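TICKET: design request
STATUS: open
ATTACHED STRUCTURE:
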């Protein structure tokens, strides 16, 4: 499971088996895990995070969306 970024308490990653889904990242902190689609940027599941944290996470993803999409495409390119 490749980690794309670590920012503050958050780890942004995807699973190697995620190839058949649209580009997205999983976000983990402690025992919480959320999933966000990258194109268009949209919350898929909040995984126990508060609304305030989800807003912070979405802003972080928006600021790093290009890097995350590049990591996804590089990893899953044939």
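STATUS: resolved
RESOLUTION: sequence designed for all positions
ATTACHED SEQUENCE:
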């Amino acid at each position: 499971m490749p980690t794309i970024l670590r920012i503050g308490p958050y780890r942004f990653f995807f699973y190697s088996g995620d190839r058949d889904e649209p580009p997205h990242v999983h976000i983990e902190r402690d025992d919480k895990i959320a999933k966000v689609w990258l194109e268009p940027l949209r919350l898929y599941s909040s995984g126990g995070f508060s609304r305030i944290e989800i807003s912070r996470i979405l802003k972080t993803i928006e600021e790093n969306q290009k890097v995350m999409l590049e990591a996804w495409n590089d990893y899953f390119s044939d």
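CLOSING REMARK: The chain has a mean pLDDT of 95. The first helix runs from residue 51 to 76.
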